[in-house]
């Protein structure tokens, strides 16, 4: 294979990998291959938000040239909070999961979408466990 052919194949592979990413949390939300879950709680949405955000930061934030970042925003005046995990590097940001914690009549609701990875179902289960109050980064696997 010639050098030019190798460069073209490499560019196509990189382009394909980047194009399958969710470069915004909205792209992740729209993804048809992502998995989703929703659960209601009898607790205040701020308490559920804090528990989920704290555990996600402790378990998934990393530093370096390709860092996993947990972005978390609580909008008290609007009655909800959002948390998202993404990778920040020299390439476009890629989102892996997003949670919305909303105030409901007598409690709260957590809606989570997880995608862009082969372990997105396991990631979804971890995020829901954290919302439930489990402080462990990883569930014990049988």
Topology record:
Elements: H1 3-19, H2 25-30, E1 35-41, H3 45-60, E2 67-75, E3 80-88, E4 94-103, E5 108-114, H4 120-132
Antiparallel strand pairs: 1-5, 2-3, 3-4, 4-5
Query: What sequence of helices (H) and strands (E) makes up the elements?
Result: HHEHEEEEH
Low-confidence stretches: 4-19
Rg, alpha carbons: 17 Å
Oligomer: single chain
- Overall morphology: globular
Biggest sheet statistics: 5 strands, antiparallel
Secondary structure tally: strands: 5
Q: What level of helicity do the residues show?
A: 25-40%
Mean pLDDT: 85
* Strand line-up in the sheet with most strands: 1-5-4-3-2
- In whole angstroms, the N-to-C terminal distance is 46 Å
Summarize the structure.
This protein is an alpha+beta fold.
Structure description:
The structure is a single chain. It is built from 4 helices and 5 strands, in the order H-H-E-H-E-E-E-E-H. With 142 residues, it is α+β, with helices and mostly antiparallel strands. The chain has a 5-stranded antiparallel β-sheet. A hairpin with a 5-residue loop joins strand 3 (80-88) and strand 4 (94-103). It starts with a helix and ends in a 10-residue tail after the last helix.
């Amino acid at each position: 294979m010639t050098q030019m052919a190798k460069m073209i194949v490499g560019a196509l592979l990189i382009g394909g990998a980047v194009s399958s990413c969710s470069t915004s949390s909205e792209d992740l939300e729209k993804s048809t291959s992502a998995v989703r879950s929703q659960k209601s709680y009898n607790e205040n949405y701020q308490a559920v938000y804090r528990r989920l955000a704290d555990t996600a930061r402790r378990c998934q934030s990393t530093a370096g040239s390709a860092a996993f970042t947990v972005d978390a925003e609580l909008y008290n005046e609007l009655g909800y909070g959002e948390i998202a995990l993404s990778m920040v590097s020299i390439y476009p940001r890629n989102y892996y999961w997003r949670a919305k914690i909303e105030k409901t009549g007598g409690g709260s609701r957590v809606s989570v979408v997880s995608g862009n990875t082969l372990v997105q179902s396991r990631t979804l289960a971890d995020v829901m466990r954290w919302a439930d109050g489990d402080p462990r980064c990883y569930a014990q696997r049988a």
